[in-house]
Design brief:
181 residues; mainly alpha; Fumarate Reductase Cytochrome B subunit; two-stranded antiparallel ribbon; 66% helix; binds protoporphyrin IX containing FE
């Protein structure tokens, strides 16, 4: 009788945080571009608040994920050509860097523009820098450029996962799903 070797998977907390961050980022990107084009109104200001709350939540989850990764190592990469493994590894590292850099650039921008960040309208966060209009404008550009990089990396990450699942037919996607194959 053929016995299947169990597939090493990510832990449930890692899987939960992965999909929560994925949903938040996939919501934040279009929300960011949409809200910016709106004329000033209570709705625009509400959308800015939601954007900041979700953005800070990504920052908190990214820190928790990194901490959990130190406690519970992720499963080893599945066998694949070395160049594929290197691209996957580099994409993962850059996604972690941007999960910190994008929200921090937004928070810094808000502080420089003199807009306080109150997480969920409950927890006031400290201003990371003093009010400085020129710095605020520069950070807005930084936030935009980092976001374009994040959008491109998310697309590459998604394409990689779909290739493994639909073409290579390996268990890459299943390792990041809460239910077992
Ligand atoms: C992963 C988290 C985040 C993503 C993916 C994201 C994405 C975006 C995108 C796509 C835009 C529109 C393009 C741009 O001008 O950059 C934007 C604008 C903006 N973001 Fe974020 N953002 C994030 C976190 C944050 C955080 C944490 C804050 C503040 C605490 C923030 C504050 C802003 C503001 C104020 C704007 C509008 C800039 C303006 O109209 O002057 N963002 N964001």
């Amino acid at each position: 009788m053929k016995t299947e070797t169990p597939v090493a998977t990510y832990s449930l907390p890692a899987i939960g945080a992965h999909w929560l961050v994925a949903v938040l980022i996939l919501a934040l990107l279009p929300l960011g571009f949409y809200m910016e084009g709106l004329p000033l109104s209570p709705t625009k200001l509400q959308l800015y608040s939601w954007h900041k709350w979700m953005g800070i939540t990504v920052l908190v989850l990214a820190a928790l994920r990194l901490g959990w990764r130190l406690v519970r190592r992720p499963p080893p990469p599945l066998p694949a050509p070395a160049w594929q493994q290197q691209i996957a590894e580099l994409t993962h590292v850059l996604l972690y860097v941007l999960m910190f850099a994008v929200p921090l650039s937004g928070w810094l921008m808000s502080s420089a523009k003199g807009f306080p960040v109150v997480w969920f309208g409950l927890l006031p966060l400290p201003d990371l820098v003093g009010k400085d209009a020129a710095l605020g404008d520069l950070l807005k550009e930084v936030h935009m450029v980092l976001n374009l990089g994040l959008a491109a990396l998310v697309a590459l990450h998604l394409a990689g996962a779909l290739k493994h699942h639909l073409i290579d037919r390996d268990s890459t996607l299943f390792r990041m799903l809460p239910f077992k194959k």
